[in-house]
Structure formats: C-alpha cells, structure tokens
Please model this.
Amino acid sequence: MDETVIEYIRRTVLKIPRKEIKIMLQKWGFLSRSQLQTINFQQTKENISRRVALLCQENSADIKEAAALDIIYNHVYPNKRLWSVYQMNKTIYQMKEKETEFFDIRDFKTKFKRKLHSALENVTINFREYDDSAIWIRIAWGTPYRKPNQYKTSYVVYHSQTPYAFVSVSMFRSNVPLLLEALVAASNYNHICAMELRSHSLNSLKEIVFNRYSQNFQTYYPEALQEHSVEPESEPQIVHENRKTKEKIQGMNQQAFWDCSLPKLEYAQYKLETMFESDPKMGVLHRKQPFRCLVKFSSPDLFESLKSLAATSMAETSLSPLLTCIPQKPMNNFRITEETSLISGRLSTSLCLN
Amino acid sequence: MAVLRPFDKLPVLNTASLLLVGSDQRLQQELAQAIVKEKKSSNISIHLATSLPLSSERDHLRPRIDLIVFMIDIKNKYSLKNVKASLAHVAASFFLGKVCFLVTGVGRVNYCSVEINSIWKLGEVYCSPVLFCELELEGIRVATAQRLLRMLQICAGHVPGVSALSFSFLLRSSN
Model:
C-alpha cells in the first residue's frame, strides 16, 4: 500500500508544471518547510518528483494525504476534466417542513460515505472545503474484488447553498447513479436530474448556472444611445460604405448578447428529429419519417466565435434564437422535435425545443 | 447604378480615391489607417466596403474610384466567395490596371483554408496583380500601405509617364 501511494504522489507531482510545483507543495502542507528547502526546484521534473517521493516516504504518507494533493491539483487546473451539471430538488412537502435548515458539513460527509460504502466497499472518498462554500469530493472507484483505482477518479463539486452539483467522471460511468444517489441522500434533497450542460471550463458553468437569477434585469439600450456608442470616424478621409449595416449588426449583437463577458462553452449540440421537407413530387423521405441528424457547433470559445461572425461579415442577419438562448436556459445539448398542432383545420408545424 | 465604372465621374484636382473591399472589417480599418499615416503629396480618400454593389444612396457623394483592392483572407473561405461575388459588379474597363487583389493572413500557414492556385487563377482571369501580405505585423502593414499608395498614385494619374495599364503589365509575371 505504501509503495503505490508514494508512486501516486510522484506521478501527481509530475503532472504539475515546473514553476508551480513549489507553490502547490506549500499549499499541500504535508512536507515541512525545512524539507521543502532541501528540494532543488531548478532541476528536471523527474528529479524533483523523485525527491518529493523520498521525502513523503520519510514522513510515511498515506492515501489521505495523496488524495489531498490530487484535489489541490484539480482545483487549480479544473479545465482538464469534462464537467456536467446536475440539479437537485426537494418536494414541496419537504420544503415546507424544514424551512430553517442549516448545512452541517460533518453530517453531509458521514451520510455520503455511509451511503456509498453500503453499496460498494472498495471506494476511497476524500473531501476538501474551500472558501466559496464549495465542497470538493474525490472518489476513487474499485470493484467488490479489487482495490480502488486511484488514477481513475471522479470529482464532485457541490456548493452547499445551492441545489447544483458539478460532476466529472473520468471512467466507470456505471457508477454515476450510485454517486448521484449518495449525493442526494447526503444533502437532504429528494431527487436529482441532469441538466443538459457540459463543458471543460468549470468556472463558466458556475457563471451560467449561478447567474441565472440576475438575468431578469435586462437593461434596455434605447436607440439614441446606440448611435453614440458607435465610434465616430477618426479620420475624415476614411469612409465606411456599409456603415448602416454595420450599425444594425452591432445593435443585433448587443441585443442578443448584452455586451457583457460571456461564459466559455466549447460546443452546442442539436439533435434533430424533424421531418424532412422536400418537394412532394420527389418522394424522397418527404414527411415519411423523422429525419435524424446531429448538428454540433464546436470551438475553443463558442460565444466569442458567434460574436465575431458579425465582425467578419459572415452573418448578415441576427443569430438564431436557438444559439442565443443558451446562456438563459443553461443547456448545450438540445433535442428538437416536430410539433404539430391543428389550427383552423390545417396542419401547421413549428419547432419545439426541449 | 449597380456596376462600378471607372470613368463615369469627373476627377477632383489632386485627389485620389481607393476602395477596399473585404469581409474582415477590423483589418480593413487598420490598413486604411496605415495608408492615411503615410507621407503623400495629394489628398487620399479611402472607402471601406464589405461587398459590392455599393449602396446607391450615397452615390452622389462618392468621388471617382481610382483603385479597387479586393482583400482575400487566406484563413476564411467566405472572403474568397465574397470577393468573387463582388467582382460581377465591377465594369470590365476597371480591369485595365485599376484592380488589385490583396491576400492577407499569409503569416499563419497552419490556418490556411483557401487554395493559392485558385487565387492565382483569379488574378490571371481578371488580368490583375496579386499581392501577398500579413496585416497583423506592423512592419509588413506599413510596407503594404506604401505599395498600395504608390499604385493608387499611378492609377490616379499623378505620376507622369506611367499609366495604370503599363504598370499592370510590369507587375505581371512573364511566362
């Protein structure tokens, strides 16, 4: 057990960029100051990691300390994992009953551990609390016959004052229901459902989900103000021929995106299950079966690239509401089905978003 | 007034007008500012447009265009499509030395998405010179501005002894 733990610590240190190793070891606090001073941080990472492993062996590190280092690393570099968002809710009965409820961290931890251990013996669970009332939970999964695999871990970031949890599962997707059950039981909610939102950038997900409440206060930019906000021609010799269209597009962008800094999402996925509308005479799939296709927009930063469509004149009209509604209803996986309704005896169809 | 003609307006004394057509507005603006900063003996006016045809509302305010520069961004297939669509709105007599193709973004070879062959062909078909540049670098931007300014002066007839047509023959590579 000791050998594997030391090797795990060494490999975690290898993941950290060389300039940050000293700071992270200080944050970790397992090695004393005098021990840290004996490490030469100018040598190669390989040598630094061996030295750290030696010192940890002297201090007889156990799995708890190793897990703490892993949590710190993931807290500083959360963008290496793919996070999905889950929302928990209570039934109305439960909400009315316990109105003045305060959050007890120890209670949460014991309930979580108990629930997980009752289903699966071989798991390693570690907690770490941070200032913004975020609880980072690290889980290493095993099977009934094998010890937990420390390299394939799942993380849960739970903000105790909100009903949202951010989960990152690296492998072993079959354990996700178990994890969610434990989370619900520990946090005194009733059920949990997955929001269709996934991204690598944890901070952006938090921004989108927590800022939802502030979006009711939309500021309205009246027309007169917009004209002043377009910068006046700096040189009288440079004439913009398409000035009117440029202003129009800038106005549309402002309306769609409110000129504020947008969160960083990597993709938006639309699963289409709509009817293919072709010339009836052609008879190819015309309204016979729903046409299934998947449209995915991906980019290192989706909203920036959408904004720049107008600047590079690739978009001449305003963007589709399917794209601009993403910050409001936090979703980036959509399923679009056909909705048919009978209006004055004729069939009319419109796209139904869900 | 959909088609741009070279000689349908009277020239203004000691003035030259340049029309930049391209889809990336930010780069256009930067290039225009670089041209304006250069030392010159005549008045220069630069018109920026994203595509042709130009709106007919401001037609009476517009001076005679001496040189049209079509900006193609090598990273953006749309810019080539835009330029090809705009070429239809230029009268044939413009192509006697008063049109030039400027290919930008050549510094970023990794993101190249337009075929250079298609651009060479465009230059051959329309008998116009093709210039390559990278407008994000200060030095090259200034150099390009100087080249375009010199071409503009020749096309406006400010350089005695050299006409736009003879200059374009000089620029054509001899096969």
